[in-house]
Amino acid sequence: MNKIVSKFGGSSVANARQIEKVRQIVISDPARRLVVVSAPGKDETDLEKVTDHLFNIATDGGHFRLKGKTLTAAQSFESVMAKFASLVKDLGIDGADILRDLEADLNSPIEGQKRIDFFASRGEHYSAKVIQRYFRATGIDARLKLPEEIGFVVSERFGDAKVLPATYANLEQSLDDDGVAIIPGYYGLTLKGDIAVLSRGGSDLTGGEVAYAVKADLYENWTDTNGVYQVDPRQIADAAVIPELTYKEIRLLSSKGFNVFHFDAMVSCKKRQIPINVRNTNNPSAPGTMIVSAREPHETAVGIARMDGLAFIYIEKDMIGETIGFTKDLLDIFKDYNISTHHYPSDRDDIAVIVDQLDLRGKTDGLLDDIRRSLNPDVLEVNYDLSLLSPVGIGMKDTPGVLARAAGALYQESINIEIVDQGPSQMCIHFGIHECNAAKGLETLYRTLLKK
Predict the structure, then answer these.
(1) How far apart are CA 208 and CA 203, in angstroms?
(2) How many domains does the chain have?
(3) What's the CATH number where 367 sits?
(4) Minimal CA–CA distance to 260: which of 11, 4, 5?
(5) Rounded to two decimals, what is the model's pTM?
(6) Worst-scoring range by mean pLDDT, 248-252, 258-262, 286-290, 371-375?
(7) How confident is the model over 122-159, as pLDDT tens digits?
């Protein structure tokens, strides 16, 4: 029998109605025996996500204060308890013990970063417990497989834990039984026995690692959209779902603002060439988007990503291109300030470093001072409010004139290109334009490269 790992995101388990849809999907295919679940997402009754409430409890209200909101830890506690009480009631299961255990966990005396990770993990932990009990109440042989029991071991990098190699053999052995396994995503256990969470959106990572460990035939990522769209459908209403993408294409798209799922989740699947199918829990008859190792392109560009809120630091100095180690020395300064860089297009005597604008907050003066002191540039400028529009597609490599067509279309709309950069794979072009022109620029590139 084929082996399918099915991961259901927060919107898929947001309430009893959604969980029943999950149950119907699982029982519709006997190969769906490994089910990874997220914390309950927001529905029409919620103002905030469960995971955000859990962070807020762990930080005594600090999480929402940083967002300019006035929700206290006590209010978040009530919201989380009410959410799970509603799930238990609406699903018609006996969950008094689940609610007691949840309340005890939310009053845990754990301190420091370990406290934050432990509290953050409780959304997935108790989501899995509720869903497993509901499945069993409806006649499914469902078994709870907690990360701390199946050997899902991670590093001690709290808040951004990494899966340790021992996990794969542990999972292969622990998940090799009959019935349906319900596995909470997002967290694991350190070698010292502490709960540590993966990066935000880590349930996708859990699903990918489980698929790799058990040598799955397919990894399904169930969400609230029909698949991966050519562009964000909230920005271009008639954008279509992409039927098939390569791992490389989805990585390029997702690293530039396509937030369908955590792009690191596919790394392990790619190693074993496990296809990933992005599906819609609310429309399970739709085939979704299949992500595969290789495909035959029938188009030039397959999608266009848009990333806003960027800035670029521009440096001009004679002989940059002939100075060995200049780019490394420059990027080391950004590293010292813990600023991630997206691109650094360069010429013989100048270079630009593109970063998230928010990452510069409180750091700009020190960063520029260090660049001046270390590299003595002739010109040093910061340019804000940049957007990147990035057409992606393996068909672009062998199609002459794509860059010219795209740039010409932007020119016809009087949109100035601040920066242009093409990756060496020739599968992606990045147009940096002023953010005020981003919507018009995206529509222009969509019309020029994608719309049939």
Answers:
(1) 9
(2) 2
(3) 3.30.2130.10
(4) 11
(5) 0.88
(6) 258-262
(7) 999 999 999 999 999 999 999 999 999 999 999 999 99
